[in-house]
Design brief:
Elements: H1 26-45, E1 66-69, E2 74-78, E3 84-89, E4 92-93, H2 96-103, E5 124-127, H3 134-150, H4 158-168, H5 171-185, H6 195-199, H7 202-205
Antiparallel strand pairs: 1-2, 1-5, 2-3, 3-4
Keywords: Hydrolase, Magnesium, Metal-binding
GO molecular function: 5'-nucleotidase activity; metal ion binding
InterPro entries: HAD-like_sf, HAD-SF_hydro_IG_5-nucl
């Protein structure tokens, strides 16, 4: 393995736009992402319209490192050794006894295999970035809604959530929906002030294909 790194030996140096060349106001961007996902689930998949109403403090539910146990509708916060520190069913906190009954005291058996890769057939999903993290809250509220109206024990909403993610992050969605909302509401709400961004958000946020 090479033991040194030198920029002089690089033909090209690339920078990730998000949170590197472009910083975001996280509370505002989180709300925009949540609303986009929720709108898709309600209008395209027939979910409860209550998902569109979101008290601002609900976003406190979102934190990096949450693991969604998709079939059970549970969200797990894990320690470094893989034990479950805390958990919720939907948005409702689980008791210590409930956690022990389902996940035990020791390392969670799926700790080393959980992935943040979006897949329709996944059983577990790791929320580790800001671009789908608001989806954790949306999924939790979907679980609450299904429990209230259908009394479900196993859940089958994940394929619809994957469709919402794919819909909102495809190139055409950025052009038609995201940039329109950004322009209408004011880019300064989402991106720390810049004359370039304020004048033309497309110049900063336009998707680029290599």
């Amino acid at each position: 393995m090479q033991q040194h790194f030198s920029l002089a030996e690089c033909d090209v140096v690339g920078f990730d736009l998000d949170h590197t060349l472009c910083r975001y106001h996280l509370p505002q961007s989180a709300r925009l992402i949540y609303d986009s996902f929720a709108q898709y689930l309600v209008t395209e998949k027939g979910y409860d319209k209550d998902l569109l109403t979101l008290p601002p403090d609900n976003l406190d539910f979102c934190c990096k490192g949450l693991v969604l146990d998709i079939e059970e509708g549970n969200f797990l916060k894990l320690a470094e050794d893989g034990t479950v520190l805390r958990a919720s069913h939907g948005t409702k906190s689980m008791t210590f006894e409930e956690i022990l009954e389902i996940y035990g005291r020791k390392e969670w058996k799926h700790f080393n295999t959980v992935s943040g890769m979006v897949s329709r057939t996944a059983k577990y999903y790791l929320y580790d970035n800001y671009f789908d993290l608001p989806g954790a809250l949306l999924c939790a509220r979907v679980v609450d809604s299904l429990d209230q109206h259908d009394g479900q024990k196993k859940y089958d909403f994940w394929k619809d959530m994957v469709a919402a993610i794919q819909h909102n992050y495809k190139i055409s969605a950025f052009k038609v929906d995201f940039l329109r909302k950004l322009s209408n509401l004011g880019p300064h709400l989402y991106i720390p002030g810049s004359p370039i961004v304020s004048h033309s958000p497309e110049s900063v946020l336009k998707p680029t294909a290599f």
